[in-house]
Amino acid sequence: MAAVGSYILSTRMTKIPQAVLNKTKAPYNLKQGQSRLFHQLPSGLNMEVIYQKGVRNKTIDEKVLKQPPLVFVHGSFHAAWCWSEHWLPFFSDNGFDSYAVSLLGQGESDDPDGSVAGSLQTHAADIADFIKNQTTLSPVLIGHSFGGLIVQYYIANLEKDSSGNLAGAVLICSVPPTGNSGLVWRYLFTKPVAAFKVTMSLAAKAFQTSLPLCKETFFSQEMDVHLVQRYQELMTDSSRMPLFDLRKLNASLPVASVPNLSTPVLVMGAADDFIVVSMIFITVLKW
């Protein structure tokens, strides 16, 4: 085993050629400087990781060489590719080693037994195993949507049990620790049309067949329709299994609060977010 920066070349991490990929119909083509790796979990299943090393040059301050690695966790209907478009290149250019994981049953990761990809507990444990075995510095853990809920669970339950504390965490348009049921009920009474669209788009997966609905639910109105179509295909192709059994998930919530939390947490929202923006305030209060 050899360490390179904040990345460990481990026997539990393998690289598979693009031609061998078989989980998705049209695998995401990586950008220059990115690698697709596979981390073997204790279960024996492989978790896809897209990695981009931080750029090191003479103009970068010595402090940047000690910057924590970044680990990105996606939400529903996505996979590691969603971070590879812009986030990994941006942070790599600024000296950060960056990793985007695909949760089980998503992207090119293996499928577990059963009808859903996992639970809040199992997804967080998979990320903890990756951090413990594949990074040498404590990372910043970054989660979007349901990925943000997984990050919250990680902080509340697993951080002290893994290899060192997190350097920080970022919740981007995250599902709050109480779950999304409050959002659903609020929409039903205050925005019934929006509630119908969200239900059709997500619960009924109509975003997979309706380009206008996909655009309204996930993207800005200014985005080019051809780009929306490309992402629609990737989202449909890479989410083979539901991330959670929502009934069991809701029964396990809320995520426990952490008194005197020492991990810095940044909570971010977006003014035009169609689904989550109204729940950001709840997350800020909780954390």
TrEMBL record:
- Which GO terms of type biological process are on file? lipid homeostasis; phosphatidic acid biosynthetic process
Gene Ontology terms, MF aspect: carboxylic ester hydrolase activity; lysophosphatidic acid acyltransferase activity
Q: Which residues form the AB hydrolase-1 domain?
A: 70-274
Could you tell me which InterPro entries the record lists for this protein? AB_hydrolase_1 (IPR000073), AB_hydrolase_fold (IPR029058)
Per its UniProt entry, which superkingdom is the organism in?
Eukaryota
Q: What is this protein called?
A: AB hydrolase-1 domain-containing protein
Source species:
Ambrosia artemisiifolia (Common ragweed)
